[in-house]
Amino acid sequence: MDGEACAQAVTLMERTAPWANTRILNRDFFTVTPGGVGMVEALLGNPPFVRYQEFPARIRKRAFKRAAEAGVALSRLSNSWAPFVIHALSFLKANGRMGLILPAELLHARYALPVLRRILERFRRVRIFTFDVPLFPSLNIQALALIAEGAGSPCDDFRVLRVRNADQDWRWSSSFQAVGWISPWAPVATRPSRVSEYCLPSSLRAIYRKVLCSESVRRLGDLVSVDIGYVTGAHDFFHLSRQGIQNWEIPREFCVRSLRNGRGVKGSVFERRDWDSLRNTGATCYLFKVPPRIDRRRFRQIRPYLAEGIRRGVDRRYQCRIRDPWYSVKSVRVPDAFITSMSAAFPRLIVNCANVTGSNSLHLVTRHPGIDQTIFRAVAASWYCSFTIASTILEGHELGGGLRKLEPSDAESVSVLVPLNLQAAEKIGRLLPDVDRSLRKSDYVEASRILDDALLMDFGGLTTREADELAGYVQKTMQQPRRRRLFTAVSPPMA
Fold first, then answer.
1. Are the C-beta atoms of 146 and 106 separated by less than 8 Å?
2. CB contact burial 167-206 (16+ within 10 A = b; e otherwise)
3. Which of 1, 54, 353, 479 is spaced 20 to 30 A from 203 at the CA atom?
4. How far is the C-alpha of 351 from the C-alpha of 381, rounded, in Å?
5. What stretches of 397-437 adopt beta strand conformation (E)?
6. Separation CA 58–CA 102 (nearest Å)
7. What pLDDT, in 10s, does the model give residues 69-120?
């Protein structure tokens, strides 16, 4: 829609491909139809990666209308690239081809599944390339390349290929990774919640599905809510050590015990003694929390530190300047537990026995009304069962460099294996201290084994062999080096 950019495109084409009959349309793509420009044999594109919050309402309405006209109902949380892809498909001739640069959300975001399903409906052969070296190193986003051909026929050949680094001549090598075909006509109840489920070896996928069908499996979100922690806008200013409080003579009423991140926590239970240990080592484990309105006497006591914040420019940072006043952090509360949002192995659920609050470097877990302490402790313990660890891997997504992220909505979608019987749940909850001790020794395998022995066969319905296979997969995942790939097994494509 940028006239100058269109002119530059024409100039570029005239210089590099003078033989081409080039026509650039300086228009909103969603106002263009096949009837106006004709059908094409190939589609090439890099649609904008604009998050739904920043997608202008007027254009978003038109974009979603085009997708609906094509028969695809997109979630209102969809980013802008999704309707671009759906609308683009309407321009393609039979047996045509398509090449797109898309965000990695195509493989893990729930809103992206209808887009992928439509692609599999329309193209006989589909390849998705993911990259060891980011396509856009300067951007905080993982991108992939999608190549599809044979428009007009349903897919019978769908593969995900991991592309290794390019050499000096820009030749790329790839490690073959195939995933099972996701049938677009499968009943809704049998469709995966994530494409990643199809990246498991077929035998392991069957084991995972077997447990998933157990009556003892529930979504974490059915038992608790998961939200981000408080947002300061400047962690280094708003988090204080004991020495910092003394140096600035800040009254203790403005200092709230906090857990800034999960790096100093090893177990599955965070006790008051753990927080004391962090404090005694000089960690910034106090939150500087000031009510929006305080009297003049108390304000004078914190004025020097506020002046220091202004000197540092903290008041001009985005999350601070949109607050009134800038120094009053909102949404500070004490949760029942924390979930680590990023990790090199798997996210941990940590019970908050220290009654501290937590920053947005962690997710805050709060029990739903009616979920008593017995059930909650069983949930906290069963989180370290091999089945639930596998679920966290499938629900989360890779950031690159071996790191994985679990968003709050992803965490609520994680499946947990919790007995419905209160007596059995209490028995599982009593294993939490044993799990905590193993984790504090960094023995993740032992922590997982404790829960597997108690859950997988009696409540998950697995045989000993199946339980061992699932545990073996999870143990291999946890023991991989930081730059590991999530899916190393090959599952042949299903025709």
1. yes
2. eeeeeeeeeebbbbbbebeeeeeeebebbbbbbbbeebbe
3. 479
4. 10
5. 397-400, 403-405, 415-417
6. 23
7. 999 999 888 889 999 999 999 999 999 999 999 988 888 777 888 999 899 8
The full set of domain ranges for the chain reads: 1-31, 39-199, 217-227+334-479, 233-257+272-321
The amino acid at 365: V
> Could you write out the DSSP letters of every residue in 285-331?
-EEE---S---HHHHHHHHHHHHHHHHHTGGGSHHHHTSSSTT----
Residue 82: which of 112, 52, 46 has the closest Cα?
112
Q: Are 154 and 121 in contact (CB under 8 A)?
A: yes
CATH topology of domain 39-199: Rossmann fold (3.40.50)
Rg of the chain over Cα atoms, rounded to whole angstroms, equals 26
Owner of token pair 């017995």: 374
Strands (DSSP E) found in 355-432: 357-358, 362-367, 397-400, 403-405, 415-417
- pTM summary value: 0.72
- Token pair listed for 45: 């594109």
Query: Which residue in the block uniquely carries the two structure tokens 């969809």?
Result: 78
**Distance in angstroms (rounded) separating the CA atoms of residues 495 and 486:** 25
Please name which of 97, 144, 138 lies closest in space to residue 119, comparing C-alpha atoms. Answer: 97
In 10 A of CB 155, how many CB atoms? 22
The structure tokens listed for 298 are 């108390």
| Euclidean distance between CA atoms 289 and 327, whole angstroms | 8
For β-strands 157-163 and 174-178, DSSP reports them as antiparallel
CA 392, CA 415: separation in Å to the nearest integer? 8
Q: Mean pLDDT in the chain?
A: 86
Location of structure tokens 């349309």: 25
Q: For Cα atoms 477, 393, 180, give the angle at the middle one, nearest 5 degrees.
A: 95
CB 252 within 8 A of CB 352: no
Q: Is the peptide bond before 369 cis (omega within 30 degrees of 0)?
A: no
Any idea which residue has 């537990």 for tokens?
337
Instruction: List, for residues 128-164, the tens digit of each pLDDT value.
Output: 888 777 777 777 677 889 999 999 998 888 877 777 6
CA separation for the pair 4, 321 (Å, rounded): 34
**Per the structure block, which two tokens stand in for 387?**
């089945």
Measure the CA–CA gap between 128 and 120, rounded to whole angstroms.
12
Tokens of 181: 């075909």
H or E segment and range at residue 391: helix 386-395
Mean pLDDT of 196-217: 82
